[in-house]
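Weekly puzzle thread! Below is a chain. First person to post its structure in token form gets bragging rights.
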Amino acid sequence: MKFSIKNILYSKIVLINLLYTFYIQSIASRKIVLIQNAEPDEHEMSKLSAKGEARSICLNELIEKQENLKPQIIYAQNPNGDVYTPLPLQTVNHLAAKLNIEINDSFKERQQAKLASTIENLPDEIETVLLCWNRYQIELLVKTLGIDDPPVWSDGYDNLWIVENDNLIDTTQNLNSCIEREKANLISGASSLLYYGNNKSFIVSLLLFSLSFFMTILY
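Winning reply:
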């Protein structure tokens, strides 16, 4: 059976279109989860507060409750942008350690287009990506991911956006109870360390007394 050049060209065009459609659909179906950095310390803005640290820990609970949000790759804003801010990186540290994922922090705050291009070209098996950025750049970041008119990212650390199939889901982390529990644990631990740190002389005296007592018994 002979095929004309016209038929062969037509077949190639159809095949290319099918492959292109499959490629676009694979990109569109990728889930991109966006959060902002957790709460900073009010006295030292380059580190998380107790509540922020608790939120960072509780991201593990978020993923445990919603397996569909479990990322294969985590991107955190590079600390060395217009203003030094390691908070996004600190926010996802616990989750990355839990999932045994190395955080990619190679993109600075204004490199949204470069980051979006990188995400689009990820292997097909990467189904879910987590981005942690400062709140002032998230709306622009979402636009580069294909959402033309995103809502306003309110100044809420509990915010959670999910971009999938060219749609944006505006939801929340809903971690308040976990955060309060972990915050109490952190403060309690810090208080214990502070107490013992301020009572070193008492502890040393107690140890010396105990040593003296045992020496008396032995001899």
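Puzzle host: Confirmed. Bonus trivia for everyone else. Helices lie at 5-28, 50-65, 87-91, 93-99, 112-120, 135-144, 176-198, 200-218.
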